[in-house]
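REVIEWER CHECKLIST
Item 1: Sequence provided? yes
Item 2: Single chain? yes
Item 3: Sequence as submitted:
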Amino acid sequence: MFNEFDPLTSKQAIDTEVAINAMKREIQNILDSYVGWFDPFCELLQNALDSIEERISNEQNTYEPQLRIIVNLKENNVTVSDNGIGLKKEEFEQFLAPSFSFKSGNTRGHKGVGATYLAYGFNYIQIATKTPDFKVTGKMTDARNWLSDENPASNPKVIPDLSGAKDPIFDKFDRGVSVTIGFDSTTRPRELSWLRATTADQWYKILSLKTGLGAIFPNEKISSTIEVIDEKGNSTGLEFPGIGYLWPHKVVRRSKSLQELQDNERKLFEKQGTSLRIPASMTNLDAIYDNLDTSGLSSHITIDEDEKLICQKYDPSIYFCYMYSAKVWAQFNEKLGIRLGQNILSPGIQIAANNMPQGEIIQVPLRRNIGRQNQIHVLVHLHNCRADLGRKGFQKEIVEFSQSIARKLIERPIHRMRSRLRPITGARSDLAREDEVDKWKDEFIKHETEHPLTIINDNFFIPTKRISLTSVPTREQDVIALLNQLIAGGVIRGIKIMSTNEHFTYDGMYRVTVDGPIENHIYEAEINPLGILEDYAQELTEFISAPKIMEYKYSLDGLIEDLESGLKNSNDIGLVVVWKTGSDYQGNYYITSLLDPDNLSERQFHGVTHVMTNVNTGQREMDLIVLEELIDLLNDPQGAVARQRAKYEEESLLE
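Item 4: Structure as written out by the authors:
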């Protein structure tokens, strides 16, 4: 048992109002430095693992380390328990105060701010500790509210909690610490359920990428357990031996290390010469990865003098994983099944120190082949290095070093081995292709019957008043054919197709034209719904533009994939013609519908149906002709406008 105490008195006497306010400002500065959603998990796990590893070093083979994590969505709290060294009485009464730390420089944390963040960043903390000489459970409440209260009645205090540790298994540990943090509307996170991760497997993957559970140098001795209680009280559990980072190359089916590929190529060259044939086991890979120390790094890329100094100072370990497609990250996050838009595994650079990932992902700054940075995950671990207060980030020289190394890896050894990766589109097996050919005619007849393409509008396709295509598009070639039909039928009047070329990087060229009579280009809701404003048309009379690049896709998703992989550059493309928009553009772009008359002023030439804009820069990226939605407008003008507003106005509000 212990008497209630004020953690702040362990640092200095704070009997005066001035001293109290000074201490509150110091604590607030600490809290302001913690901005990440997973910061409380990071601090709890960091403290637990440091305690476990200290006991491992003291007791070695006689100790069976255990780590327990309980994520309780129903009660909105998280508990981390360990059977490490535990807190002695004086440590228990002092460790929550700012800048108090009992850790050495060899641990994950020793700045003395993490425990203060846990104590005063939340309105509920319970600490249970066991040592051979000391065993108590205490709690402190309303500390965060106290911090924002200009006239509090008193300082928050740690009081005995006779109910015992939140984790019932902690009672079975011979020593250690169990800490529970509660969340509410004043904290970050507010609701653990917001992430929509409701199972132990989901949380295991999340914490293995975002916290010290993802140890860069694995420790297989630690027996770990995650229990998740969902909002209905249902529980799932997962036991796993050891702790370690969730390496991206392990989430795909086929991957090879860069070193293995190079060794294989060298052996084949020695045997076969320049006519060497790469075996199937070394091609069509999902990923190329490797782990490199300083000497391994210098064998693959050129390291300049400044980078050599960084290597000497921090002894970096570099891991990289280059995926065949940028979609792998999205597929992982989608399969994880958490809240849409939360990217747990991402491309970019993750800097790590003290054997755990720290800070946010940093983009790789490529000078050419822009887009390939979205295919690589690089982890740079530095020894004798610590993140800034509250895990905000690292020194500028470290960030620039990491970016330079990542860029050089992409542009040199990875570029040379990219041919070993599977094609983005993939290739079907011979049997699958044969089977599809056998069914081809029947499928087309069925598609024509079930999905006829009709346009009910007397203003176009004179004199027949009908379109020649009989079914809605199913592939890119259909999109090209339908566009040409719409141009020939007078629906689209502002572009002239110069050529198409399936062998070049881009699909074709066009010119914007405004030729007489000018009335053909002026907007009229019923007879010319794709027209432009009259003053625009007058300004552009007898106008013909320079050649511009156009792209055809069945779905806009296909173009987004090309942009993210670096195959194509959005700055080159003027117009994209698609059957449908898909959803992959969301997040990086938003779409404005020009089929909505309210947005008519944004249509710069006849026929454009939508505009795609970069979310981050606000730059108008390219014009779109979305054929599915254009046909809908021709057949049902009023209903189509309502559907456009429902789809795109709601979307823009989410940006």
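Item 5: Key structural point noted by reviewer: Residues 7-245 form a domain with the Heat Shock Protein 90 fold (CATH 3.30.565.10).
Item 6: Recommendation: ____
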